[in-house]
Structures are given as C-alpha cells and as structure tokens.
Write a structure and sequence with these properties.
This protein has 8 helices and 5 strands, in the order H-H-E-E-H-H-H-E-E-H-H-E-H. The chain has about 200 residues and is α+β, with helices and mostly antiparallel strands.
C-alpha cells in the first residue's frame, strides 16, 4: 500500500474533475478484491471486444494512519471498436464489482451503491458523442441507447465471461498490476497488437 495518494490522473475523471468517492463498508481485503473485480470487468470485456489492454491495476494508499483508500485503472487502446461495445466495456466495471458482492455473499444496498462509477458512464457518453452516437444517462435518446440498455449488454457479457473475470481479479488482487499480455495468458483471450503499437 502506498503512503500517499496516486497521481491526479488516477483520481480524476477524463474531464479532470475528481471522481466521486464512496465509503465501502467492507474490510480492506474484501474491498481491495472488489476493486480488482471492477478493473477485471473493464479489462476482460475490453479484450473480448477487440481492444488492446495495456495494464489493469488496483491502487491502494493510506490517506491517514490506519486508514485506506482504493481506486483502479485499466489502460487500453482501441481501433474500430463498435461504439456500443465500448460503452458496455465502460459499464462492465461496476457490473463485475456488484457481481462480486453477490457471488461472495457480501451484497447489501449500501455496498452496491458504493460500486457506483458515474465517471465510466460520463466518459462513454462523451466519447460516443464525438462519433455521433447518443447515449442517455436516464433515458433513450432518439436513435441512441440509454445507460441502462448498455448496462444490460455488459451484464450479459460479464455473466458469459465470469470465469475469466474472476481469474483476472484474483491475480490482480495478488499482484496489484497485470499487463494485458498477462491477462491474455490467464484467460485465453487475444490481446491485439495494432499497427504501430509496441509489442
């Protein structure tokens, strides 16, 4: 566990604003594993949808003596990823984290709420808008989809890939950081290499 908070790019959203923070009423060990499931959801769905995963990690630090805080990060590249699959990848972190709570007998309404990742939704909305796709937070815009619809897509894919997500989450919890190639090795998924990318 780091003594100080990570760099701002890990604590801020894609717009540079601080991500919302929630108290996760779990032990440190259980909360850390829940964050690993969140990032594993992003990484595994991203790879399954043809994105290149660079790294996926859990970041823990001690904001004050005896306390702890957690965040995570999954760095990826994409080329030609269908926009709704990108949005489902963004939704997959929260879905996988809540699935972890349910699968391990830890689910409560308060804990499920603490999994909220509005920054993932906002990033998907902004990115899809750049390509002319309309993603609504709480409604179905004309010609588009709602975040609820995208979450449904993610929920189905997370269920289908649950074994892979669970495998990656436990490895990430143990090692903190996994490379995309390590994730590919653990899951049998392909981590594509795009033209001009590093091996």
């Amino acid at each position: 566990m780091m003594a100080t908070a990570p760099a701002p790019e890990f604590l801020n959203d894609h717009r540079g604003n601080p991500k919302a923070r929630f108290d996760m009423p779990l032990t440190y060990e259980a909360a850390r594993l829940s964050m690993a499931f969140h990032e594993a959801g992003h990484a595994v769905l991203g790879m399954a949808y043809g994105m290149r995963v660079i790294t996926s990690e859990v970041i823990a630090w001690e904001p004050e003596q005896g306390g702890w805080a957690l965040t995570g990060n999954t760095a990826h590249e994409s080329s030609g990823t269908p926009p709704w699959q990108f949005a489902a990848m963004a939704a997959a972190g929260e879905i996988a984290q809540v699935n972890y709570l349910m699968s391990y007998g830890l689910w409560t309404p308060q804990r499920a709420y603490a999994c909220t990742a509005a920054h993932d939704c906002e990033q998907a909305i902004d990115l899809l808008a750049q390509f002319g796709y309309r993603l609504g937070r709480d409604h179905v815009p004309e010609g588009g989809k709602s975040w609820g619809m995208v979450r449904g897509m993610a929920r189905r894919k997370v269920g289908y890939l649950w074994r892979e997500i669970r495998t990656v989450a436990h490895a990430m919890n143990e090692h903190s950081v996994l490379t995309g190639d390590e994730i590919a090795g653990l899951t049998g998924l392909v981590n594509p290499l795009f033209e001009g990318g590093a091996a």
